[in-house]
Write a structure and sequence with these properties.
The chain is mostly helical. 82% of the residues lie in helices and 0% in strands. It is elongated.
Length: 112
């Protein structure tokens, strides 16, 4: 069977699209979105709070005292900082979940 020129051009167009999608895949994954969200929330917290002073004022005596200090600091901040802190925490969890999920799929694919 002979292939004509139009079949080759269609194949070239489809393959170009496949390559584009494959190249963009790392940028549109859930882990990438979670990482960008995490960086954005940290930037927002840094704009609202002088983070270096918070850590300078934190007690270094025990873990319990540090936990109590950071809990009190969280409770006495504005709602914006609290929301950004919660968003940063959950985006970090989302990022690690996606990274571990991809790593486990990759590892199990190699074993098979």
């Amino acid at each position: 069977m002979m292939t004509n020129i139009s079949d080759n051009s269609i194949e070239a167009v489809v393959m170009r699209r496949v390559y584009r999608v494959r190249a963009l895949r790392p940028f549109v994954s859930g882990a990438t979105f979670a990482f960008v969200l995490f960086v954005f929330t940290l930037w927002g917290i840094g704009r609202e709070v002088w983070v270096a002073q918070v850590f300078a004022n934190a007690p270094h005596a025990s873990i319990a005292a540090s936990f109590q200090f950071f809990l009190s600091a969280f409770e006495h901040t504005r709602a914006t900082v609290q929301a950004l802190s919660v968003a940063a925490f959950f985006s970090m969890l989302w990022f690690f979940r996606d990274v571990l999920r991809v790593a486990s799929v990759t590892f199990s694919a190699r074993r098979a």
